[in-house]
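Quick bug: DUF1211 domain-containing protein output formatted oddly.
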Amino acid sequence: MGKGRLEAFSDGVIAIIITIMVLELKVPHGATWDTLLPLAPVMLSYVLSFVYVGIYWNNHHHMMHAVSKVNGGVLWANLHLLFWLSLIPFVTGWMGENHFSAIPAAIYGVVLTMSALAYMLLEKVLIRLHGANSALALAVGKERKLWLSLAIYVLGIAVSVLHPWLSVSLYVAVALLWFIPDRRIEIRLSS
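Here's what came back:
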């Protein structure tokens, strides 16, 4: 099967996720800086989530350029990823509205963890379809950055009970780790 419909569908879902997140932002009543201050946690959680969705879109885009076909397993693995990404607007709003309190911060970390695991699963299914010597397989290698991210997410979930802001700081650290686009696929495809 060709990959065009999967790419188009994924791009559409990700665009809707971002749209839902921005629609959740409420306009303040007033025109002073003081009216913006209570919205700071909501805005910070939005920016963090926007960056995360952007990172997933960017990496998904690169991954799809490294493959030539999809099958039923890939379609389901991609839907699994999109499911977890579609929960980001909910946990973003919940965490922001509750000023980064413990349970919303922990659940935010769970959604980030499951999104990362779903991305890893999609990658593995694509590698199985294309082979161990495919451009994707050779580009991603051992996935040290992904495993490190998962460890930091789990740590963030664990510390959220006592220090929710520390857990959010750990989630920001992972976003910074991935903010610069992963060039492994680009390098592999250009060689």
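Actually, after a second look the formatting is fine. Residues 4-190 form one domain. Closing.
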